[in-house]
Specification:
DNA binding, TATA binding protein of transcription factor TFIID, TATA-Binding Protein, alpha+beta, about 35% strand, 10-stranded antiparallel sheet
Length: about 200
Amino acid sequence: MRDTQLLCYNEYTTMLSIANIVASGKFDLELELATLSKDLRALSMVSEVEHSKKNGDRLLIRFSESNTRGILTRTGVYIFTGANSYDDLETAKHHLFNSLRSLGILSDRFPTDSEVLKPLSIQNIVFTAELDTEGPLDLNNVCILLGMEKTEYEPEQFPGLVYRPDGSSCTILIFSSRKVVFTGINTEQVAHDEFEKLQDELLV
């Protein structure tokens, strides 16, 4: 069965564009990465493998037919990053699980409960959108509208305004071009709600 969380298309995709999805899980496995890296390179589903010991012992994996990069650690943690769609993330997951199954590390392309400590879940999605306002934004005025205590704007350091809405875990970057970037979100519903609130506040 495919993960419904990774396939939850809805009407918000027409307003919001996905720039990056980060998802992770954990197998109940100890992996020998030096051997595994050689074995993975021989598989058609894998286009590139790098055994990196910088910032921890791990494999950096690129998959065929996917923009997503996989990270696999000795302790069984796996992370996907760089996906710009749910389909792309699902393809990377399919390739990783099938690769480990073909090497005899997993019993099936759908791991059993005894092989999984934490199932794959989305940790963060970066969304982009464009505000429905006329002309470029004056970010100094935007600071006042949104509240100085909730915004940071230092154009000599960074061209965008950083906005942290009350009662939300997300951070919003706002640019004079009207482009908006949402981070710290794991569902489209939250991004949609925050976008609607932002539009309302700026169109007062």
